Amino acid sequence: MEAGEPQCSLVNGKNGHQGAGEPREFVTTRWSLILSAANLGSEEQKARDALAELCRTYWRPIFSFVRARGYSIEDAQDLTQDFFVTILRNNWLQHADRNRGRFRSLLLRSLQNFLVNAAEKTQAHKRGGDAEFISWDDWMAEAPSQLSIPVQALASLPPERIFDLTWATTVVEHALQRLREECESKGKLWLFQALSSHLTDERDELSYANLSAELGMAETTVKKQLHNMRQRYRSLLRDEVLQTVDDPADVDDEIRYLCASLATGTE
Predict the structure, then answer these.
(1) Residues contacting 21, CB < 8 A, separation 6+
(2) 165 vs 143: CA distance, rounded Å
């Protein structure tokens, strides 16, 4: 199992259910805001901002899918930019109804349709014209994945599976980055660096004695710190997934799906 890969125990036991005092009513997430604005015609600017933020977060699965369809890096960059410009400009919100499922699923279907249409057009100029959704240099500065995806997996999987795998790694990486920033803000970046690679270790894979010696801490302290970090990581991961589903009840199913996607990439 790769460091940072979410365990499917996230959807079982206490980690898969709302804790004491946690509200059970509907919560407003980026995706639910987009859907409500599209259907009710309210808060459209906020919805567009939420859509733009989701696109900025999940550009890598789009780019990976386009590349897997056989496009060169340059063409995939152009098409990725143009796709985002298209959905942000062309009233895409009106088509994002509640019957279409999760953001991940609708985004992939929209991309597939977009590529069919793009292939039918004669491109006389750079795709997207002069409009730029976000600087590609900024995107590529973030491009290296922190999680290991074997080259043979990327070469053998169909584009749709690559999209899901890259989506899953992006979700995990954002949760890890948020955890890192929280630790750093508390002056505990060193603790994150020491323990983050053990967030998903099984009990028989982890030696608290070795960690205790490396960190100069009592084993009981190491266990407590790692337990707390795991709990926070799981909470952040669930929050990342929550932003992309309409119904909070779908979070567990989505995490199961992401776990399966990650397993495909490490086989």
Answers:
(1) none
(2) 15
**CA dist., res. 202 & res. 207, Å (int):** 10
* 23-52 b/e (C-beta count within 10 Å ≥ 16 → b): eeeeeebbbbbbbbbbeeeeeeeebbebbb
Length of the chain measured in residues? 267
Which helix or strand (DSSP H or E) is residue 178 part of? helix 159-185
Q: Does residue 2 fall inside a structural domain?
A: no
Chain centroid to Cα 96, Å, comes to 19
Domain assignment of residue 198, yes or no: yes
DSSP H or E stretch at residue 33: helix 30-40
Burial code of 230-249, b = ≥16 C-beta within 10 A, e = fewer? bebbbbbbbebbbbbbbebe
* pTM for the whole structure: 0.77
Give domain status of residue 175, yes or no.
yes
45/30 Cα distance (integer angstroms): 12
Mean pLDDT by 10 residues, the chain (267 residues): 48 44 54 75 78 86 91 89 84 65 86 85 49 55 50 75 91 93 95 91 80 92 94 94 87 92 74
